[in-house]
Amino acid sequence: MSDNIYVLGSAMIKFGKYLEKPIKVLTGEALDLVFQDCGLTKDDVEAAWFSNSGWGMLSFQHCIRGQVALSANGIQSIPVINVENACASGSTAFHGAWTALKAGLYDCALAIGVEKVYDEDRSKVMGGFLAGTDVEETMEKMARFQEEERQRKERDAKEKGLQPPQEKAGGHSVFMDFYAIGARRHMAAYGTTQRQLAVIASKNHNNSALNPLAQYTFPVTVDEVIADREVSYPLTRAMCAPIGDGAAAAILCTERFLKQHPSSRAVKVRASILKSGNRVGENDVGQRAARAAYEVAGVGPEDLDVAELHDATAYAELHQTEQMGFCPIGEGGPFAESGATAIGGKLPVNTSGGLISRGHPIGASGLAMIYEIVTQLRGEADKRQVENPRIGMVENGGGTLGDGEAAMSIHIFEK
User: Fold this and answer.
1) Exposure string over 324-340, b if 16+ CB within 10 A, otherwise e
2) Which of 51, 165, 227, 250 could be 89's S-S partner, Cβ–Cβ 3.0 to 4.6 Å?
């Protein structure tokens, strides 16, 4: 068994909408960047974990995705493990590579996530998000929720003397409705406000304006977030992750390999945890995964200097700051409003812009989050750099099961 595992290379392409670029091309771009980052070659990689969720649904490449994409870019013959774990696919691929290195099977491994989510057929895109849920249960649940939403909007419009707003063609992701339900419950239980959610969204948009690789690179004020088009109350469009494409990759190695290829930019993996959610009862997967990660890493939330949390919506970030132990349950809103999670705050969260603004190409997101923390710990984040960070965390959730995530991966890194 190997002792310490390190990230030797980390990279991502600029996230955006690449209708004209196939998966193979995006894969090649990420590979070129990650090998440039660490100075290795394709021949150094002994095994690869390839993360992707939607290639089959959009282009019928249901099987051997990694073998197809990687062999088209000069990586073949080695073991290739295909990973699909909804939005947690990228960090699950990283965990798989880490596990194999930890077991001593290899000394150098690649984790890469590539995804094309954007398509001209909006209904096709939105329908694909159902796959990250128990589809049968979701269809029943969403029928009830959407009828409640229709009635609410009609009441609100009638009170204001307006016509009820029409749903945009193609609708929106069912996950936005799930997050809206969670946000409403939190507001009712703890007094959380829509403005507090807007503070989180504005922070992340402003952070992404400092990140040239983000899908969105423009600042947004709190008032502009609130005034944006409603997606599912209390969530507005600026509080929700956009649709887009991207690729990100990491090269992991053992301590033995690092001694043979010394680098002052290597980042140690202190913990790599993967957990699943509960269908019945309280789905406390976030708290369970966080406790396990802190125990393995030998640190607590008070030791963290920077974190990337899975903010598919502003409410998701609020929820995870509580689940990770950054603040007490119910205090995520005031915690964000205090400035604690801003760059320069007590614990900067989503310095990259997060999923909300950096973008969320499903299979690439977890590895992009890892890229941000590695970049921060290396001191290479330029205008969004946190001051002298030593310990960083990535929390990446995937899918929905019961009242929470179906999968969750948490990684803790050390400079």
Assistant:
1) bbbbeeebbbbbbbeeb
2) 51
Distance CA 372, CA 211 (A): 10
Termini Cα distance of the chain: 23
**Cβ 62 vs Cβ 236: under 8 Å:** no
For 380, half-sphere exposure in the C-beta direction (CA atoms, 13 angstrom radius) is 14
Contact predicate 9/38, CB 8 Å: yes
In which residue are the tokens 């109350």 written? 233
The residue type found at 215 is Q
pLDDT of residue 125: 74
The DSSP code for 16 is: B
CA distances from 310 to 47, 349, 414 (A): 27, 10, 20
What is the largest distance, in Å, between two alpha-carbon atoms of the chain? 72
Q: Taking a C-beta distance cutoff of 8 angstroms, is the pair 236, 388 a contact?
A: no
Whether 408 and 2 have beta carbons less than 8 Å apart is answered as no
Q: What is the DSSP string of 376-409?
A: HHHT--GGGPPSS--EEEEEEEEEEETTEEEEEE
87 part of the active site: yes
Q: Which residues contact 373 (CB under 8 A, 6 or more apart)?
A: 306, 307, 308, 392, 393, 394, 411, 413
Contact 70, 48 (CB under 8 A): yes
The reported pLDDT for the residue numbered 58 is: 87
Please indicate, yes or no, whether the overall pTM of this predicted structure exceeds 0.90: yes
**Do 394 and 91 contact (CB within 8 A), yes or no?**
yes
* Active-site entry in 87, 240, 253, 327: 87
**CA dist., res. 216 & res. 411, Å (int):** 25
169 pLDDT above the threshold of 60: no
94-132 CB burial, b ≥16 within 10 A, e <16: bbbbbebbbeeebbbbbbbbbbbbbbeeeeebbebbbbb
CB atoms closer than 10 angstroms to residue 256: 13
Bridge partner residues of 1 (DSSP): none
As a whole number of angstroms, the distance between CA 249 and CA 113 comes to: 6
Tell how far CA 252 is from the center of its chain. 19
Residue 165 confidence (pLDDT) above 90:
no
For 13, the token pair is: 């392409």
Angle at alpha carbon of residue 367, lines to 403 and 128, rounded to 5°: 50
360 catalytic, yes or no?
yes
